[in-house]
Amino acid sequence: MTNTIESIRLAIIGCGTTGRIRANFARQYPGIEWLGLCDLDSALGKQLAEDTSADFFTTDFEELLDRSEVNAVMVLTDENRHTAPALKAADNGHKLFIEKPLAADALESRQILKAVEEAGIDACVGYTQRFRRRFLTIKERVTNGQLGEIHSVITRAMMNRMVPLATLAKTKKRKGLTPMVVSGTHSLDMSLWLMGGKVPISVYARSTEKVLAELGTKDSTFGLFTMEDGTIFSMNISWCLPTVWPGSVYGLEIAIVGTKGVIDVEDTHRDLVLATEDSLPAGYTPEGYEPPMERHVDFLTSYPPGDIWNHQLWGPMKEETMSWFSRIMMGAETPHASAEDGHRNLLLAMAMDRSAELRQEIALPIDPEAFLS
Ligand SMILES: NC(=O)c1ccc[n+]([C@@H]2O[C@H](COP(=O)([O-])OP(=O)(O)OC[C@H]3O[C@@H](n4cnc5c(N)ncnc54)[C@H](O)[C@@H]3O)[C@@H](O)[C@H]2O)c1
User: What residue segments make up the domains of the chain, in order of their start?
Assistant: First the structure.
C-alpha cells in the first residue's frame, strides 16, 4: 500500500450508471472534502452534479484532472473509454480507481498498467463481486486450507441479453466487446481470486453467435484453462438468454474442488423470485436504454451492484466504494483488484476469444502484441 491522503478531493469521470452510484456514496463519506464531476453528456453530468452538490463540473476530463484540488480519481466511463483519463490520472500521480475491464484493448490495458507502475500509485479495478459476504468467506476458507490443494474449478455465468444490447448500442467501436471481456471478466476474476495465485499456461475455448452476431458480438464462450500446477479451470459464459430470463443481470455457479474439500457456490439468485402483473424495469439501464419487451419475473438480488431501499443502493458496490475511500485515506486493507489483476483478466478473456476464433489452444501468458494481428 502506498502513502495515504489526509482528505479526499475526488474527481469522477463518467456520470452514467456507476458514476451516479459512486458519486452518491462519495457524498456520504465524511472524508470527501471536494467532489468534481465530468461527463461528455453535459445534461446528464450537470444533473448528477446538482443531485450530489458537486463542487465542480466539466465536460473535459483534462480540465478536471488538472484542477489543483484533485488527489483521487475514479474512471467510470464506457468500457472502451477508460484509457485516456486513466493515463492522465496516473501521470498526475492521483490515487486511482478504474471500472472493469481495465481497458477493452490489450495494448491500452498494458499502457495503463505501465503508467500506474511507473507512477508508483495505488490503482484498483472495479471487480465489485469480491465485496460480497459469501465470496469473502469462501476466500477465507480457501486461504485457510480447508479444501486442501485445489485442482479443479468449474464456473458458469448466465445472463439475459440486456447487457449486450445496452452496452453495444452505446458505441460503434464494438470490436473487443465480447461476453468474456465485458461480463465474463467478473467471474474470471472471482474464480482466479478464489483459487489464489494459480498461473494459467494454456486455454482452449469455443464461442457461438446465433443471436447477437448482428450486433457484432458472440452469444456464449466456453473455455478450459490449464494452470501451471495442472489445475483445470472451466470458464463458461452465456449472455444471450432471452430478455425475459428473470436474472436481472448475472447468475453464477462456481464449484471449487480440492484434495480434501469442495465449495459449491449457487449464486443464481433463484431462491428469491418476484412475479408481478406490472412491467419490471431492465436490470441494467444506462441512459436511453429501454428493455425491448415487458418483463414480469425477477430473481431479486441479481443486480450486481446491490439493491435499492428508499432510493439508496445497498450492497457490494457500496462496500467497494466506501472501502476504497478508507483504503486511500487510512491505508485500510481491502480485497480490491489491482491494475495488475485487471490487466491479467483482460488478456485471459481475450485469449479465450482468440482461441475460439482460431479454433486452437492458446499458450499462456500471451503478449498484448499478439492481439494486433
Ligand atoms: N463494477 C460493476 O459491477 C459494474 C457494473 C456496471 C458497469 N460497470 C462498468 O462501468 C463502466 C461504466 O459503465 P456504466 O454502466 O456506468 O456506463 P454508462 O453508459 O451508464 O456511463 C458511462 C458514462 O461515461 C461518459 N463518458 C464516456 N467517455 C467519456 C469521457 N471521455 N469523458 C467524460 N465522460 C465520458 C458517457 O457519456 C456516459 O455518461 C464500464 O466499464 C462498465 O463495464 C461495472
Answer: 8-129+317-335, 134-304
Question: Whose Cα sits closest to atom 15 in ligand 1?
Answer: 17
**Residue-level pLDDT at 28:** 95
For residue 2, what pLDDT is reported? 61
pLDDT of residue 1: 54
Class of domain 134-304 as given by CATH? alpha beta
Is the minimum distance from the CB of 70 to ligand 1 under 6 angstroms?
no
Domain 8-129+317-335 fold: Rossmann fold (3.40.50)
- Residue 282 pLDDT: 80
pLDDT of residue 57: 98
DSSP code per residue over 343-367? HHHHHHHHHHHHHHHHTS-EESS--
**What pLDDT score was predicted for residue 279?**
92
Cell of 33: 472534502
The CB density around residue 144, as the number of other CB atoms within 10 Å, is 8
Q: Is the CB–ligand 1 distance for residue 320 below 6 Å?
A: no
Distance of CA 230 from the midpoint of ligand 1 (Å): 38
Q: How far is the CA of 161 from the centre of ligand 1 (A)?
A: 18
List, in order, residues 6 or more apart from 111 with CB less than 8 Å away. 83, 87, 103
Which atom of ligand 1 lies at the shortest distance from residue 19's CA? 16
Per-residue pLDDT, 3:
87
Task: State if residue 36 touches ligand 1 by the CB under 6 angstroms criterion.
Answer: no
Model pTM score: 0.96
189 lines ligand 1 (CB under 6 A): no
Sign of CA dihedral 309, 315, 321, 326: positive
Does ligand 1 have an atom closer than 6 angstroms to the CB of 246? no
- Ranges under pLDDT 50 in the chain: none
Ligand 1 atom nearest 126 alpha carbon: 1
Residue 56: alpha-carbon gap to chain centroid: 27
Residue-level pLDDT at 169: 81
The residues, any chain, with a CB within 8 Å of residue 228's CB and separated by 6 or more, are 198, 199, 200, 201
Quote the pLDDT of residue 242: 94
Residue nearest to atom 33 of ligand 1 (CA): 39
Which of 78, 162, 186, 336 gets mutated to test ligand 1 (max ligand atoms within 8 A of its CB)? 78
